[in-house]
Amino acid sequence: MPRVEIDRSTLWKKARQVKHGNIPDPKVAEKAKLINIEVVDYSKLEVPSSLQSLCRYVETTLKPQEKTMTFTIEKEVFGDDRSTFVSHEDITQFAGMEEIGATVVAVYMRCLFDNLKAANMLNMVGFIDPAQVSANAGSLTDISRLVANRRQKTDSEQIFMMPYNPGRHWVLFIVKAKKETAYFLDPLPGNRVVDEEAKNILNSAIKMYNSHIGRQGRKATIWKTLPGTPKQPRSVECGSYVMRFMRDIIMDTSLEFEKTFAKGKDQASYP
After folding, report:
1. Can you give the pLDDT at residue 20?
2. d(CA 207, CA 145)
3. Where are the alpha helices (DSSP H) in 186-237?
4. What is the pLDDT of residue 30?
């Protein structure tokens, strides 16, 4: 998929922004409001027509009026009700397979939840909110408890998908708590190792889960790296690839992801 080119007016604004997108100089901020926005011809991009329509809506409505899109994420998705929003930058970055944040990943998972529901697979796959478990979301104990509680409230046979970002890079963990097994999927090329903090979180969560169900369990969680995952061509597509991993996994109703992403499989980039 080709990148969405950022127009010069957007680059001018970004160069003058500080944290959270604010422009501290009031005169510069006022000038930024007056800069015309160049509309990108999304019909020429090789993306689904629905995404093209969304991008046109972003350029013609959201950006000029500085609006956001609000989404409700029901309790069944992550275990708690919450609302969130995405900005026009979020959508443009998603369309162009650029760096994306936890909000975009969470909203995408909300859409995957609908697919699971339509396929009667809610008892097979569960999700863990990436915004509540990635780096700096809380203490190791708190995050481990959140993961364990999410596991305790659902079907014992479910696998759980947990996108995780230790810092500007997305990976995917899949947890089978009943079998005390965790899988690691990383879109970066090379022999990657599991992030230690994420490993500690899931190890602790599985121990908490065992304690909850009164099971002694193994001395250590079984960890499996799935090296056959497609590999991102640049340094910024990790979030898009992790979302694609999740989609591909649930599209296979047998959930044989271990075979799909096994060693020796084709590691080419997604088309």
Report:
1. 53
2. 10
3. 196-213
4. 59
